[in-house]
Amino acid sequence: MKTADKKKKYPKPLLLLIVMAFVIFSAKALTMLLFAIISPLSSVVEGLVDSVLITLILLPVFYFHLYYPMIEDIKRRETALLVDEFKLPIDSINVPIFGIDNKGKVNEWNQKLVQVTGFQASEILGKSLVEDFISAEYRESVNEGLQKALQGDETSNYEFQLYTKDNKLVVLLH
Fold first, then answer.
1. In whole angstroms, how far apart are CA 65 and each of 19, 60, 70, 161, 172?
2. Please, which contacts does 125-131 make with residues 24 or more away whose CB atoms are closer than 8 Å?
3. pLDDT of residue 174
4. pLDDT at position 4, please?
5. Residues of the chain whose pLDDT is less than 50?
């Protein structure tokens, strides 16, 4: 699941060339129309106005077709690297660690939990921890404790039983 390996598709060079040609043509047509309306200007002023208008029109094209996609790609890759760097220590810790989102769906499942339960992270991620993997007698207390933790309230440690892949119950301390 290396998101950093996904390649970002940048605009194709031919498409970019066509867009640039259209923008330059439009800018030149606009300046010629502007010069036809405005009273005669000196060639220096005409050249400056022409350059400024073309620059102002071309900058957004360069920004949205080249610069912005590259910056977004860099941000996406940096985020993926940070996630990978964060995940490595969690996976190497010899303690069961799981994470849930605000809906109670599992979003983290380390290697120790894989060893203890037999479930791979890919089998667990996105499923409800309480409804799908906690024994019925512990569901209410575990759900209560997890909701408090999600709200930032400290909870005392307590035991709960978690179903393994072969439908056995293991006791974990939260």
1. 9, 8, 9, 54, 52
2. 128/103, 128/104, 129/98, 129/100, 129/104, 129/105, 130/104, 131/104
3. 64
4. 46
5. 1-5
Note whether 101 and 107 are within 8 A (CB).
Answer: yes
Q: Which helix (H) or strand (E) holds 153?
A: none
Task: Compute the distance between CA of residue 109 and CA of residue 58 in angstroms, rounded to an integer.
Answer: 48
Determine the longest span between alpha carbons in the chain, in angstroms: 90
CB-CB neighbours of 18 under 10 Å = 11
The model's pLDDT over 108-150, given as tens digits with 9 standing for 90+, comes to: 888 888 988 899 989 999 999 888 888 888 888 888 888 888 8
Exposure string over 22-31, b if 16+ CB within 10 A, otherwise e: ebeeebeeeb
Rounded Cα–Cα distance for residues 53 and 31 (Å) = 7
